[in-house]
């Protein structure tokens, strides 16, 4: 059963731009999907629709196994990682990661235990008391990843998360993200315009094309036999 199923999805902005058309896509639990394509092909629009930040203007989006709230909206339960880590500068690394848990009603001591676990998983043990400005760009990105995963969301959306980092840092983060995914098997949709990143990370590469934004083809990445 797919986690989310898109059928004939379309998005036309008020400006008239047809940002997406005819999007048919199933995302299965545990998938690592790359959305690959040039600027303007609708990758960010698709992520925002998955996140519920923007509504489609055509087609359907279904969350077959999600609970629905009183208004009938699916509980999407999403983690989002942006290119610019949106950490709170006045709060420690620990507090940045515990906050989503506390907002979900988890008590402080348990939130700190869980945050410490995720900070260790992203190799930030020992930096709990640091403030974001004291960290490098790559480390801030690791904090963002821990913060997005600490609530164990059903779906992790990443919008060109590493694009602003230098090449080596970017490679290390790709490597670490892949190891984390292999250990935890969360579901990821990862937007990129890098073929290298797509092939390195994803099992499924959804290639998109612009004007109008659409799916051009899907490529399944075959893992090398060990
Ligand atoms: P990508 O992430 O692949 O670069 P986007 O989803 O950002 O693509 O944009 C797809 C198309 O929709 C582009 O032509 C872009 O200019 C347009 N667009 C994006 N956001 C808006 C918006 N809020 N209002 C109007 N047009 C938009
Ligand atoms: P909607 O509320 O229709 O789902 P968004 O919330 O994504 O769409 O749009 C936010 C606003 O961004 C739009 O109403 C528009 O005024 C503005 N915008 C217009 N053109 C663009 C563009 N090319 N890229 C990004 N934002 C745009």
From TrEMBL:
Please give the Pfam families that the UniProt record associates with this protein: ABC_tran
Q: Which GO terms describe its molecular function?
A: ATP binding
Q: Which family does it belong to?
A: Belongs to the ABC transporter superfamily.
Q: Does the keyword ATP-binding apply?
A: yes
Key word Nucleotide-binding present: yes
Name it: ABC transporter ATP-binding protein
| Residue stretches making up the ABC transporter domain | 4-226
Q: Which organism is it from?
A: Roseomonas nitratireducens
Q: Which InterPro entries match?
A: AAA+_ATPase, ABC_transporter-like_ATP-bd, ABC_transporter-like_CS, ABC_transporter_ATP-bind, P-loop_NTPase
Q: Which UniProt keywords apply?
A: ATP-binding, Nucleotide-binding, Plasmid, Transport
